Amino acid sequence: MSRHRLVRNYIGADSEYYEDEVLGRSVDDESPLSPSLSQFIYSRGSENPRDRLNSVDCVQEGEEEEEEVENDALHQMSEILDMGFDMDECRDALLQYDNDVNRALNHVMSGEPRETLTNTLHNRLQPDRSSLGDRTPTNCRTPVRSNTPKSGSPQIPRRQQLQTTPSSATPTTTPKVKKSRPKDIDVLGILKSRTDDKPLINVAVVGHVDAGKSTMMGHLLCLLGNISKKEQHKHKTESSKMGKGSFRFAWVLDETEEERERGVTIDVAQTRFETPKRTVNLLDAPGHKDFVPNMIRGASQADIAILVVDATPGEFEAGFDAGGQTREHVLLVRSLGVQSLVVAVNKMERVGWEEKRFRDIEEQLIGFIRGVGFKTSEVVFVPVSGLEGDNLTERSDNGALQAWYSGKSLIEVIDEIEPPSRNYDKPFRLVITDVFKHPQLGLSVAGKVEQGYVIVGTPLVVMPGGDGTMVKSITVDDKNVDYVVAGEHCILVLGGIDQSKVFNGNVLCEPHAKIRSTYKFKARILVFNIDLPITKGFPVDLHYQTVNEPAVISRLISTHNKSTGEVIKNKPRCLTKNQVALVEVKCERPICLELSKDNKSLGRITCRYGGNTMAAGMVIEIT
Fold first, then answer.
1. 198 near 279, Cβ under 8 Å?
2. pLDDT single digits (tens) 3-20
3. 3-state secondary structure at position 471
């Protein structure tokens, strides 16, 4: 930086200093002529040197402002385009279109050759000399300059001029660069040709608080080798210091300080592991009543559910009776579209692996499970010990268990469940579960692809806001991939959009096939065991995927037969427990929905009130 710029703000100092500064200005700034020479090109008359200095400052400030605008525009383009683009090409496009980012982006993305743009700039930069006329100042004498500097005079460096290629000249060959456009990948063809990949299945672990869900799944991950010996020893040591040695396996999934201090799962823990036949995406949901909304968020992303119950006398009854979470969790997972259920009867070592206790629990649960809509063939009971690791990954060699149980281990049961069919060929839908800003990559979102697929470079729309963006990169299980398909959980790095316009519960979709957003819709709901009847105008907390919005049941349209679906009564005055009804729901803010017949996961809702689940159902009509 020149000395002139460092002292330019000191106006009001000695005037002689400033006169010297103008006449003997530093040559650090790039300039075609030295200041001491250029000041005599045009006659200045009796102009005040300080006025000349102020005019120079204004010119420099204008140039700096123009440069700042250009840099801002270039930064916007770099947010949308990846590093494969030539920044010189972007600068030329901005210069051609007067820093209009949208027009410059269209030009760069169109793939027009660089030399065409250069020729256009060259023509724009050449002045129309015919219209200039004779503008030579009367009091001007053009100096004759020689390439050889005078003796005693320093050689003045010239500004490096922009080299443009005239249209008649041979253009310089520009190397091809990788554009941030959707790659030419036949995703559907790849999926059809896959034979060696293990099918992906999303498993939610639910159940009453203190049933041992996190301990069981944490021990399973240790047995599968997903947790290193060093990490296991660390959990064992730290839990023992806190007097919670039995929580060492639970700490594999309960990672936050609050969860470890309280000894309960608060948020949904997510991890991935492989079995001999499946790739499993594990969702460990909280069991405490205060965190049912988090449980709904995890269960809404599941294909199957593992219901963990405590075999200890009195503990199973506490979870299954009124006020326990076992009943509510079964109702919720079924209402959210889960078809298969595995019941893990945990802590069997506390009852001596007694068959009678196992059969009693099975008998009490199976009738209730069938009553909420599960088929008997889709429900499997497995006796396990989460703390000791018996019957988790391998069939137990415990003699007390082998005496009466000859079934499969928990992992073998998971391997036998067929994953649901995926809507790979439908328009892309991803429900955002988390929004964060990566220090190197920028704005990132996490979520599950509900249908379709997306490729790096694909333009998307964030609904219901309707703001456009583009996929800059995709990460699945900490690995960068070129595409992601329905059923997978992933992290997308987005460009061209501000973080303030992206929220949990928003849906990413394609611009030509947007998901519908609405304030009002009709749904067929099943009313649970409630104390208060549901009437017109009844306020509820509407849970939809990761969305939790206040809503009102604005109309009671009709009640229906639970088995046949026939209309029993039109315009009922109220709804009571175990009734099936068609209602109209009105939200305060727009939410994104699909009809249940088009997408089961995106067409299911849950209504809660006062901390209790009131009803759940399917979207029938979007108004």
1. yes
2. 333 333 333 444 443 344
3. strand
